[in-house]
Amino acid sequence: MDDSTRTLAEDAPTPQTRRSRRALREAGASVARATPTTSADVVDVDVVVIGAGQAGLSAAYHLRRSGLVSVGQRGWDGGPSFVVLDDEPGPGGAWQHRWPSLTMERAHGVHELPGMPLVVPDPAEPAARAVPYYFAQYEEAYALHVQRPVRVTAVHDEGHAPVPSTGAGERAGGRLLVHSHSVEQPGERVVWRARGLVNATGTWGKPFWPAYPGRGVFGGRQLHARDFRSAADLADGHVVVVGGGTSAVQLLLEVAKATSTTWVTRRPPTWRDEEFTPEVGREAVALVEQRTRAGLPPDSVVSVTGLPLTDAYRAGIESGVLCARPVFSRIVPGAVEWDEVPALEGGWVDGPSRVEARTILWCTGFRAALDHLAPLGLRARGGGIVMDGTQVVADPRVQLVGYGPSASTVGANRAGREAVRHLRRLLSL
Question: 120 Cβ partners below 8 Å, 6+ apart?
Answer without folding.
Answer: 104, 130
